[in-house]
Amino acid sequence: MTFMPDGQLLVTERQGNLRLVTTAGAVTTISGTPNVASAGQGGLLDVALDPDFTTNPAVYLSYSESDATGVGLAVARGILNASGTALTGL
Question: Which of 26, 37, 55, 58 is buried most, with the most CB atoms less than 10 Å from its CB?
């Protein structure tokens, strides 16, 4: 999880969900996350904000992905929309 500048939290869930938790405790699922390989120790792992998040709302995710050769670690960047409900341009 990571704290946003306004005190809200972005929380990853192993199965691939990214959640926004408000300071009041309301939870919203953010769309646009990558497909993850959540077997074993894999899944949606870390989340980080751009160092200048207030002017560049980029969110970085690390996660496990699978292809024909096996499972590996990947890193992606997406832009969190103004309402905090979707990642775009992942």
Answer: 37
**Which range of residues forms the domain containing residue 48?**
2-88
Q: Is the per-residue pLDDT at 1 higher than 90?
A: yes
Which tens digit of pLDDT belongs to each residue from 55-84? 999 999 999 999 899 899 999 999 999 999
Going by C-alpha positions, the residue among 46, 55, 54, 64 that lies closest to residue 10 is 46
Distance, in Å, from the CA atom of 65 to the CA atom of 54, rounded to the nearest integer, reads 29
Q: Is 8 helix (H, G, I), strand (E, B) or coil?
A: coil
CA 86 to chain centre: 10
One-letter identity of residue 2: T
